[in-house]
């Protein structure tokens, strides 16, 4: 939460420091990876690290649909890579068959 407050007041470097500390102490926490991805994506425009942490969030918590959707949006609208966008949705649907309608909604756009 501290990281989000720091980001809101414009201190993205302090926000990053908090998240890096959390990543060091809780290396399997998917929310930390997702928050790092969002910070690198929107604040630092570092797409290499954004992708790394988007995929790490998925790896750490494969049942969290929103992590797949975050990666989909990154691939589709930032990198303009429809193949990767579709692939991440298909992977999410395969791993989370009970949430297939959520993935199908986005897959229909291809």
Question: Short description, anyone?
Answer:
The protein is built from 7 helices and no strands. By secondary structure, the protein is mainly α.
How would you describe this protein?
The chain is mainly alpha-helical. It has helices at 2-8, 12-25, 30-43, 47-60, 65-78, 82-95, 100-107. The mean pLDDT is 93.
Portion in strands? under 5%
- The CA-CA distance between the termini, in Å, is 36 Å
Percent of residues in helices: over 70%
Could you tell me the number of beta strands? 0
- What's the helix count? 7
What key phrases describe this protein's structure?
7 helices, 110 residues, mainly alpha
Chain-wise SSE layout:
Layout (H helix, E strand, L loop, with lengths): L1 H7 L3 H14 L4 H14 L3 H14 L4 H14 L3 H14 L4 H8 L3
